[in-house]
């Protein structure tokens, strides 16, 4: 008997939905809904059935759950008898990545490997090109899962999607195509190419499937892509073609195959071939610690350059200003230091920079990696030289708001702080003023642009967090500079660096001045590179830095976005340090300036025990200004009509 009339069915529909969801959650391939739930559903009119199956629990409707669990029978019932929306998206959790994606039932079934469900959805004309929240189609996402030796139904699902008209060319939001997602499976690559996939389609990094196949060392896929006309000379946004990618990644088998595919004897190609032998040798030495293969490859390049019919000279860069070496040109020059690992590594760095360029991400990474190796061996001076150079190159290439730059700066500061604390305890000094000053100058070069970019709309949280990390690091550098500066010249350099930041008005993402930050206990840094092997080092609030910032002209009454002065911040119990508070009070910092909530620094001080005489910071002028503002004796816009200019400014400061 069907339910009719004007009965309130909302509670009944909710109960049926709850039971339906429970059965869909427990469904499996071959399972059907119970007779009981089917009977209850079919007692509803068509519109009520649609209402029941459209409800969601934890972001998923019943159809989505049935598709995810592989029950084609349940899915078909919900579509045919309940008019379930096949395009209603649900949340698909990727446990290993810790993320969820908003996707359609077809996408969910395709990625989950539910072939029978995919066929049902296609049978009833589900949108074969529906996309996830990252713009990925069911076909593209299924392609990524196919792996050699992994027995799944995804290859059959891909065929079914293609036969149903899936767009092989459609990329996701980042330009990634089905072919790019398939480089791990040579048979799948061949299938897509046979069905018209564009072999040289590239993503936002201008990388093609060939680039990805090469960097992963997938020789069979490389051969298939080349067979279908892939362009080995097409370059990425970093300037890497297939040859250069093979050399950077140390893909020797791929490199040998590519060398065989081209005519290496032409005058135009020979310089490229020599460079690639040299770059591959640098990779084997720096990344794989394979000195023998590196020397073999370098000798091969030297022979081609000097013993062929046509000389192939290097693009000579001269004496490297940081590494203090020059690159070898002949086999004889190489043999001189062929047993000196340190010299060979310096050569590998010079070769990398010459061929890739100083602004290439892998050039910078290799300097950082080489510096880390020195740090691991306790060779801190060598590490500092390489890291400062890498930081200089990185800031020239990127802004201070980039994650790479911010984390590089933090790594340098962690090294400095560790060295400084250790040397303080041992009464010796290996960390030098010039090293810290060089790092500070690198950051100085990017401060103005970084500050301008933080004001650009829309704002991105990651970039703002990176900016705050840089300013945190900058203040730690000021701390070190003040401790290390001895001569008048060094002290003058510190003053100029700090004044520069003051002149351009550097503030944090929340509007804190550097003085606000220097009085906060949140300005900590860790002693190691990971949470497991590090501890928090708290050098702030720091009275020496606070006094120096005030000496350099920082305004003790500057307000942040919450209208708090540095004294407000310093007055909190978590930030309280007697010397810091006295530094601000002794400079005349007002204790009665209200923040955006009307709370003064004095109000905050009253919440915990402090040692400070604040009476000298409360004058008759302060009391008068507070009365004028509180009682609204004069309109703020008309203060200048009744008061002299200094008094107007004083009153406005107390608003």
Characterise the protein shown here.
The chain is 55% helix and 2% strand. It is flat. The chain has a two-stranded antiparallel sheet. The protein has a two-stranded antiparallel ribbon with strand order 3-4. Helix 10 (186-194) packs parallel to helix 12. With 655 residues, the protein is mainly alpha-helical. The mean pLDDT is 88.
Features:
mainly alpha; Serine Threonine Protein Phosphatase 5, Tetratricopeptide repeat; two-stranded antiparallel sheet; flat
- Secondary-structure class: mainly alpha
The largest pleated sheet is described as: 2 strands, antiparallel
Could you tell me how far the N terminus lies from the C terminus, measured between alpha carbons in angstroms? Answer: 73 Å
Level-2 CATH architecture of one domain: Alpha Horseshoe
| Average predicted local confidence, pLDDT | 88
Catalogue the unreliable spans.
none
CATH superfamily heading of one domain: Ankyrin repeat-containing domain
Q: Tally the beta strands.
A: 4
Percent strand equals under 5%
* Residues in helix, %: 55-70%
Estimated radius of gyration:
33 Å
CATH level-1 class of one domain: Mainly Alpha
Task: Break the fold down into its secondary structure elements and pairings.
Blueprint: H1 10-25, H2 35-42, H3 46-54, H4 62-69, H5 72-82, E1 90-94, E2 99-103, H6 105-111, H7 115-123, H8 138-145, H9 154-163, H10 186-194, H11 209-215, H12 219-227, H13 242-249, H14 252-261, H15 270-286, H16 291-307, H17 331-336, H18 341-356, H19 361-376, H20 380-397, H21 403-426, H22 433-453, H23 461-484, H24 488-503, H25 514-518, E3 525-526, E4 536-537, H26 543-551, H27 566-571, H28 578-586, H29 601-605, H30 620-630, H31 639-642, H32 645-653
Antiparallel strand pairs: 1-2, 3-4
